[in-house]
């Protein structure tokens, strides 16, 4: 019998709030380069990014949502308390890092939250190790691939335009950045919004609101894309500054290469159903374009602080989620 309780509606609302905060927290990923190169003013850039964040569901399947919904922890152990703990772990960690201006991963915060709450309930048997291993591997592989693609693009473009004046190159790539920023925002919306879709879908599944095989209802797809798009509209200017200027200074050509390298990485990951971090991906790409100029162009101390945040995100979100799960059980 379907259980459409107040808890279910409340948790769906909390999940959409997380998706909104994901857009808020990760808006910098989509717009940092196009803002820092002054191709678009911040106000226009967020509208640009929000639109492509929203329409991403038209271009991608729901492989990432399937992985998050049924491939991180076993759907059979999911209940309201597990989802509450997972969402609170991710939300609290996102707010902490957003306040501090640290571009950590909303994606891995959510994965850490699911693992922490699941383990708090039944122990390590809750974990689907294959899916978790795939996600953990992406912590290393997605920024590495973004780095290599962006580095290769910078070198190729520099060779192709070697006889052009710097002014002509800047003018050309200012136009192309509209395309690359659109592609990156599309990849961001396609990968990140699906993580919340997976959480809501597995919650509905645990309540019997999804009959038959596990899948993501269309209304969940639209709600999650809209929540992320709205979050992007509000932006995250602290993180824009870190991503767009504190790691390395970018020209329009470098911004194009970083966004294109990041977008290709996200398209590949989304097609394979791997929930990667858009933050990790674009950071790796930005470091790649900076390193192509010269290694001293990269502020490695800032990059080091970001890497530390990557490493601690999943365990910290898991700890917060396990604590929230335990408190919710006690309160109930």
List the helices and strands and how they pair.
Elements: H1 6-36, H2 42-54, H3 63-70, H4 80-100, H5 106-122, H6 129-160, H7 166-206, H8 218-234, H9 237-246, H10 252-272, H11 278-293, H12 300-331
Helix pairs in contact: 1-2, 1-4, 1-7, 1-8, 1-9, 1-10, 1-11, 2-7, 2-8, 3-7, 4-5, 4-12, 5-12, 6-10, 6-11, 7-8, 7-10, 10-11
In short:
The protein is mainly alpha-helical. 78% of the residues lie in helices and 0% in strands.
Structure description:
The longest helix is centred in the middle third of the chain and has 41 residues, at 166-206. This protein has one domain (6-331). 78% of the residues lie in helices and 0% in strands. It is mainly α and 332 residues long. The model has no long low-confidence stretch (mean pLDDT 84). It contains 12 helices and no strands.
Percentage beta strand: under 5%
Poorly predicted sequence stretches spanning 5 or more consecutive residues? none
Count the beta strands. 0
Number of helices: 12
Instruction: Provide the helix percentage.
Output: over 70%
């Amino acid at each position: 019998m379907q259980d459409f309780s107040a808890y279910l509606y409340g948790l769906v609302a909390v999940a959409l709030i997380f998706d909104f905060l994901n857009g808020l927290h990760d808006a910098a990923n989509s717009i940092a380069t196009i803002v820092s190169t002054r191709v678009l003013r911040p106000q226009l850039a967020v509208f640009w990014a929000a639109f492509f964040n929203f329409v991403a569901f038209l271009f991608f399947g729901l492989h990432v949502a399937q992985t998050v919904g049924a491939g991180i922890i076993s759907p059979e152990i999911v209940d309201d308390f597990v989802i509450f703990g997972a969402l609170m772990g991710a939300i609290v960690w996102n707010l902490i890092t957003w306040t501090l201006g640290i571009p950590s991963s909303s994606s891995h915060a959510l994965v850490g939250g699911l693992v922490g709450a699941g383990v708090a309930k039944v122990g390590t048997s809750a974990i689907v190790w294959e899916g978790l291993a795939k996600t953990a591997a992406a912590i290393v592989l997605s920024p590495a691939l973004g780095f290599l693609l962006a580095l290769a693009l910078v070198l190729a473009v520099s060779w192709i335009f070697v006889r052009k004046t710097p002014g002509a190159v800047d003018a050309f790539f200012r136009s192309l950045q509209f395309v690359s920023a659109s592609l990156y925002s599309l990849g961001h919306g396609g990968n990140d919004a699906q993580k919340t879709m997976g959480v809501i879908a597995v919650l509905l599944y645990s309540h019997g609101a999804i009959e038959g095989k596990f899948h993501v209802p269309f209304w969940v797809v639209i709600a999650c894309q809209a929540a992320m798009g709205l979050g992007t509209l509000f932006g995250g200017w602290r993180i824009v500054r870190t991503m767009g200027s504190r790691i390395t200074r970018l020209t329009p050509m470098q911004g194009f290469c970083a966004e294109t390298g990041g977008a290709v990485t996200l398209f590949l990951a989304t097609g394979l159903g791997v929930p990667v971090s858009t933050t990790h991906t674009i950071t790796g790409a930005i470091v790649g374009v900076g390193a192509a100029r010269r290694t001293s162009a990269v502020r490695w101390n800032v990059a080091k602080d970001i890497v530390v945040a990557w490493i601690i995100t999943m365990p910290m979100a898991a700890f917060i989620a396990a604590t929230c799960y335990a408190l919710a059980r006690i309160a109930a």
